[in-house]
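Reopening this ticket.

The earlier resolution said the output was attached, but the attachment link was broken on my side. Pasting everything inline this time so it's all in one place.
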Amino acid sequence: MASRSEKYDRIGAGYNRTRQTDPYLLERLLFHLQPVNGGRYLDIGCGTGNYTIALHRAGINFIGVDPSEEMLDIARRRCETIEWKRGKAESLPLEDETVDGTIASLTIHHWVSLEKGFQELARALKPGGRVVIFTSTPEQMQGYWLNHYFPKMMEDSMVQMPASEVVVEAMKQGGLEVTGFEKYFVQPGLKDLFLYSGKHQPTLYFDPIVRGGISSFSSLANRQEVERGLARLKRDMDSGKMDEVAERYRNERGDYLFVFGRSIRDQ
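Inline output:
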């Protein structure tokens, strides 16, 4: 299986055309991070730096770390005043206790070792430093109507997503205290076109550029299944059956999940 850096090196520049900063998600990241004046913050798995740059422009000192040099080259061209570093969660290129908080958006499922990644975050965080994670769980993904059209792709996607209890245990073992959760339901008009961004706008999935920015479609999916699924989706949209399918998958689990924590080193 390709590594995260290999996947996103392939996705490359097109990723930044569809994975734009979503104002609501940015607001929630900022709200839960609670940055302090003069603090130094980390975006782990920053990609092309959309959220890193937006938070930087809000006056917060951010470092962006990502294993993909292709992604970091794009980020550097977009904002030269941010410190961009190549690295993985399991071996952060940071000194001990040098950041006041960190965000990790749709990245922890790419980590080779959750526990080691959280150990590294705990090492780099100052005492009491906050962690804000945005992810999805297999249970939540079972509620995506995408399962009806792309069952194998979704099955493979769910395999790589850690369950919430696995995340919690890994954070604890890594030296972080879990402080809370917040469900996120995809809303119409979402700017960051990740996997379930087409929940209310299925036509998004017909755009190969949108699919190219979603790792499940670009790296996990079988081309034949995607073609069959898109054809079936088109027929169901034309006949009105799509509404029935979406209704069957309606649930209150949330589509994605914020997980909050903090360093529990002696303060």
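Reporter confirms the inline version is readable. The beta strands are 40-44, 61-66, 83-86, 99-105, 125-135, 176-184, 256-263. The longest strand covers residues 125-135.
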